[in-house]
Design brief:
Chain lengths: 372, 515
């Protein structure tokens, strides 16, 4: 997707936003256009990394769900005092390349001192009769003036747990915000795990596989850390996965410790204890947090290995039972249309109580080395 | 025996439908078109989307002599051509094709079924398919009774009441019988060996995204449901129009005809979905019950009505898309004097409180001007005293549900033309699936195969539905068989059908919608 019709006039007058769009559409009247919009999406990003990541997110999004995007890039510097607005039209293509689908984007760059003003600027540019979704690049709190104004209007809050500096405190704050805020919410990292969760659901759909899982001894999970963008918690994706498994299996959290190879979490279950080892692997070819392997061994000599393919979005599952090895199963990590499952999970999934339970477990973990 | 544990990982992953269960799918007649054009590409795409059960195998059962490797290569070529997603993922294909096997046998050969049984047992061991069986009858309909009987004889079908730990299901392609008597006989024969819950009568229209959207549209939008009745609706037109001819299916068409091939199944399903009452729930039987009620409410077509309300046609030479097209009687394997219909137009009345007096106009034809399937609901016109004049005509509001191509929903309304005077202009509010939901939805067969593997028969036809539609339409078949027409062919390829079909509506002051 490319924004090939970007306005060449930065810093347009706020009052001219809709006129700018009308001018675009009038200019393009002669061409065969499809103008589509399923919902309003307000994106809030703070900082360069968050901004880049969410820009990337919108590129893929428009290919699947056309929407009006209002992108707010907020400056963290306290003395910053500016408000700049630009508009552009972005487009995707139908799979049969028969027509381009166009949607509108408003870009707002705002300094710290103008945040209050930016919040009210948005209100008149939300398209009526369509859902409003709020994508917050970070942990949303009511201390933010923009969040305070927008959250009562939003049908769905999407947030990005990557980069929060204290997992335990953040998960507790998040629980409070969620309870007091919009009716539905989703964490991007949680949405990223949807395919893993479906794979698990499928592999453990039979009692033959599920029963040994009740007596698992060790879980080893390898994940990527990248030097490109150091974050506070690159292990958040694998951590979510392990905590989800733990909460579904009703294990109780016992302790966490730092080990030379990474971290280990210990959980108790009816047959003893399970150690979950998190092993970071440096690899610049993958985004930070990508799960690169998962291995589970039980005290009944069952082993379940999940090995993502390096060259395509698939996972090969190797299951060894005490008396035989099963043929490997290959399961996709994405649907044929890149990101469709991910975006459907973000915008259309119902409230997931398994996320709440996972969050509760996370709030019990004082991660070693974190500032309290 | 291991106690069944409940899967704790299902919660929250948003799957409201049953997961497809481990099974072996046996396709009878697997060297036919359907397998290569639809079934294997559907299975491949299911595998690609992670919707195929983790433990699965497919056995192609057919008469021609070939090896599994040869069959896999043929299927690779077929999937390369007919898959909705291209290019083919080579690595996925390698793993997927290793689950496909070819078994040569005639349908009457007992030894063939015994060998099949041995093969299936070995596949259970290899792929952990747990003894679950899905038998897809992609054969000529005359073989359905034989195959099912042989399956039962060789204990390849399980008795549902006695066997709880594994299942067997039979998927039957249309047509289910060729008239009421044969459908009843087929049903009686099947019930000797199977429970109704094991029979999946496939109608691929029901697997289409837009057909499923019909129920969502009707029952989640009260603004439309409140006017979905004879007080507001003038007529309903349902069209299944194809620009292609019969192709290489001359032999089949000579025995079938349009009424059997399209009207009795696909169109009657569309009529049911448009006319049904809201079901009490979304479970399969609740929906089937309402559909059957619609078909049973349709006024039977007696002799007098048949002359007036059932029109048949056959295409002659003409031009389609600017290219010369031959007539039906010039097609391969077709009798040069054939009286088989390639076009049907019907007027039906649903005699119930909701639809009393509203005509349902159905038309289906080959070699028409363009390919389109749609449902058009035309509403009654507004009282004319305000805007009707010499220069003004209020157009009737029309709601059009486009099933294919260019899936979507459009509503025609009247607006004022800007200016000092008040001429009216009909305009269209148009929702197009492809624009708003850019992704390619699953093909109908993908959804249906997956549902069958999960034991969900909502999108399959129930016995009483099928028999009710045969009961309605068999008199038409009998009359046409008894009174061959002398005016065939009666429409040129590339036109909109015979004049008699136009007269049918004109006699009531109406016209067929231009699709």
């Amino acid at each position: 997707m490319e924004a090939d019709l970007t306005s060449q006039v930065p810093d347009i007058q706020i009052a001219d936003i809709e006129e700018e769009f009308n001018a675009f559409w009038n200019d393009l009247k002669e061409r065969e256009l499809i103008r589509a919009c399923l919902f309003n999406l307000v994106i809030y990003a703070e900082g360069k990394e968050a901004n880049e990541e969410l820009q990337e997110f919108t590129k893929h999004l428009v290919d699947i769900f056309p929407c009006r995007i209002i992108f707010i890039n907020a400056d963290q510097a306290e003395e910053s005092n500016y408000l700049r607005v630009t508009t552009d039209i972005v487009h995707s293509q139908n799979e049969d390349k028969s027509a381009l689908i166009y949607c509108e984007r408003i870009n707002i760059a705002v300094g710290h001192k103008q945040k209050q003003r930016a919040a009210f600027l948005l209100l008149s540019h939300l398209l009526p009769d369509l859902p409003i979704h709020l994508l917050w690049g970070g942990l949303p709190t009511f201390e933010s003036p923009i969040f305070k104004v927008l959250s009562p209007l939003a049908e769905r809050l999407i947030f990005h747990s990557q980069g929060c500096d204290n997992l335990q405190a953040s998960s507790k704050k998040l629980s409070v915000t969620i309870r007091n805020s919009v009716p539905s919410f989703v964490d991007l990292n949680w949405a990223r795990l949807v395919k893993w969760r479906k794979i698990f659901s499928s592999v453990f759909s039979s009692t033959e596989h599920l029963e040994p899982l009740c007596s698992v001894l060790n879980i080893e999970i390898d994940y990527c850390i990248s030097d490109k963008s150091p974050e506070h918690h690159p292990e958040i994706l694998p951590l979510y996965l392990v905590l989800w498994i733990a909460s579904r299996m009703r294990w109780s959290f016992e302790s966490v410790e730092r080990v030379p190879t990474g971290y280990s979490l210990f959980f108790g279950h009816q047959d003893g204890q399970v150690q979950c080892a998190f092993r970071p692997i440096r690899d610049t070819n993958y985004s930070s947090g990508t799960i690169m392997g998962l291995n589970m061994v039980t005290c009944t000599s069952h082993s379940f290995q999940f090995i993502p393919s390096p060259s395509s979005p698939k996972v090969t599952v190797h299951i060894s039972l005490p008396t035989r090895c099963e043929l490997p199963i290959i399961m996709p990590l994405s649907e044929s249309k890149q990101g469709l499952t991910f975006f459907k999970e973000i915008f259309y999934s119902h409230h997931d109580r398994s996320f709440d339970k996972m969050l509760q477990l996370l709030s019990q973990i004082a991660w070693p080395g974190e500032k309290t | 025996m291991i106690k069944e544990l409940e899967n704790p990982f299902v919660e929250g992953i948003g799957q409201l439908r049953k997961l497809a269960e481990p099974c072996v799918l046996v396709i009878f007649g697997a060297t036919g078109d359907l397998t290569s054009r639809k079934l294997i590409p559907a299975l491949y795409n299911l595998a690609r989307d992670g919707q195929l059960p983790s433990h699965f195998a497919c056995v192609a059962f057919a008469r021609r002599d070939k090896s599994s490797e040869e069959f896999r290569q043929e299927m690779f070529d077929a999937v390369s051509r007919f898959s909705r997603i291209k290019p083919i993922d080579q690595q996925l294909w390698r793993t997927f094709s290793e689950q496909i096997f070819y078994h040569r046998s005639d349908f009457h050969e007992d030894e063939g079924y015994e060998k099949l049984k041995t093969l299936l047992s070995s596949l259970d061991g290899r792929f952990n398919t747990k003894g679950n069986r899905m038998y897809y009858l992609s054969t000529q309909p005359s073989f359905f009774p034989l195959v099912v009987e042989k399956l039962q004889e060789h204990k390849l079908i399980y008795n549902m009441n006695q066997e709880q730990s594994k299942w067997s299901r039979v998927v039957i392609e249309k047509p289910f019988g060729h008239d009421l008597a044969s459908a009843q006989e087929l049903q009686k024969h099947l019930m000797r060996f199977l429970d109704e819950k094991q029979i999946y009568r496939i109608d691929h229209y029901l697997g289409k995204e837009t057909v499923q959207n019909l129920l969502v549209f009707r029952f989640s939008n009260p603004i439309f449901e409140s006017i979905w009745n004879s007080h507001y609706i003038d007529n309903v037109q349902i069209a299944v129009s194809e620009e292609q001819g019969i192709g290489t299916r001359g032999k089949f068409w000579e025995e079938a005809g349009m009424l059997r091939d399209i009207v009795q199944n696909h169109m009657m399903q569309l009529v049911s979905l448009v006319a049904m009452e809201p079901p009490i729930s979304l479970n399969a039987n609740a929906i089937h019950d309402e559909k059957v009620k619609v078909v049973e409410s349709i006024r039977p077509l007696n002799c007098e009505m048949l002359d007036k309300y059932a029109i048949r046609g056959q295409y002659g030479p003409g031009y389609v898309d600017g290219v010369e097209a031959k007539g039906y009687r010039q097609e391969d394997n077709v009798d040069p004097q054939s009286n088989v219909e390639t076009y049907v137009a019907l007027q039906l009345f649903v005699d119930n409180w909701r639809w009393a007096g509203v005509p349902f106009y159905l038309r289906a034809g080959k070699r028409l001007s363009k390919r389109a399937t749609e449902i058009a609901i035309t509403f009654k016109e507004a009282p004319g005293f305000l805007f009707n004049s010499q220069d003004n005509k209020i157009a009737a509001n029309t709601l059009v549900i486009r099933i294919q191509p260019d899936e979507g929903i459009a509503l025609k309304i009247n607006c004022k033309v800007p200016g000092l005077t008040q001429p009216l202009q009909p305009v269209k509010m148009d929702f197009r699936y492809g624009a708003f939901f850019g992704s390619t939805p699953p093909e109908a067969y993908e959804r249906l195969l997956c549902d069958c593997m999960g034991g969900d028969n909502t999108l399959f036809a129930r016995a009483d539905e099928v028999l009710a539609s045969w009961r309605l339409l068999t008199p038409v078949l009998e009359k046409w068989a008894a009174e061959p027409t002398s005016d065939f062919p009666n429409y040129a390829s590339g036109t909109w059908g015979p004049k008699a079909a136009d007269d049918l509506l004109e006699s009531a002051g109406r016209q067929w919608r231009l699709i």
